[in-house]
Amino acid sequence: MPGWLTALRDLLAEASPLRRVMLALLAVLPLVALGAVWLGFHPVEYRMLYPKLSDRAGGEVLAALDQLDIPYRLSDVDGGIEVPAADLHVARYRLAARGLPRTDDTLREEAETPRFGASSLQEQQRMQRALESELARSVRTLDAVELARVHLAVPKVSPFLRDAPPATAAVLVRLRPGAALTPGQVVAIQTLVAASVPRMKRGDVQVLDPRGMLIGAATPETGESRRLALEQDMGRRVQAVLAPWLGAERVNVQITATLDDSETRQTVERVRNVVVAGQARPLEKTVRTTRFPEGRLARVNAVVILGFEASAAERARTAQLARQALGLVPSRGDTLNVYALPAVEAPAAQTEPAPVASRPVSIPPVRAAAVPAEPFALPSPVLLGGAAAGAIALLFYAFARLRRRSIPVSSAEAAPPADDFDALLDAARAQALADPRVTADVIKLWMRA
Known about the structure:
alpha+beta; three-stranded antiparallel beta sheet
């Protein structure tokens, strides 16, 4: 025996148990490190076993691989099943011996095969699953759809119900990378499913993506949009009640609604006591829980403005109709105020205007400073005279009567005859230029009417 082996044997024989363990680790650790390095540079190679299986067929294959103790992994690209390259053919042979994987046609034929001894509920479920599978196959024919599943909710029809409950459906689709469904394709999926199930409407079919988001759905309604929609609806209701009585152009309604953004619950417990033989004993205990959902109406503030000088009775009647149309609750803090615009005073007629015929008709030079600043007044006499000239031509008889009442008898003879239209028009223009304040008041009355 070589001398170094003899020395190693003597060393192990004389060493303590702890030193023997340390010597064994020194001998094993280099081998383990070399093995780890070799595996790091030579990883296990996986090969594709079955790509793009359906959910049911893929689940059956994975369950069989677990039973056969064959390692596997799922591809991150398309969800295919991969096994080590050394076990590829063995896995295929052993799965084929079990009749796996089964195609969708095989599963459908198995589902459609009648079974003896099955109850009516089982048969109904079998037919519903077969219909869901057929609809999913039809949805997968779209170019953008990679996988699809259809879930139907078909309630049982009862002869004791007047209106049968509607059927609903949810379609879960997984799109191909970079693909998207157009609104027309979403409508086509909804129409396909709705046309295949009795008592189902297209609006009862929801299309979702794997993240649970609706595809082709409208933007979720926010609290602000709900509030605006509620205010507009309440304003239309008040207008519909008051317009036939007061006129739509004479009523203005402003609604301010306050919504509660939090969900609250209120629990009330009541115990009713009775006196039996001179002693109080509890009779019953009632616990009531009230749930106030998010977005409920918390308070309504309404303002109704009447475009005329309404009387107290008219304002009271308006408030009563508006309160009934809005359904106000005083205990909630709802308020309603009715306001009426004041009446416009008619302009006072001039007592002694200057006779038109006693001076020549001429248009004086226009100066903007000649007209005093007033609310709703036109900026200059020329604009007032020009606007009044066309309008006063239609009402020259009123101005003629006004002149006859205000002009003295001695100067009335100098007025132009009633049948001379040009003379009356010149007289009206001259009077508008002589006193533009009266003309402005008349125009303001026309605009308010």
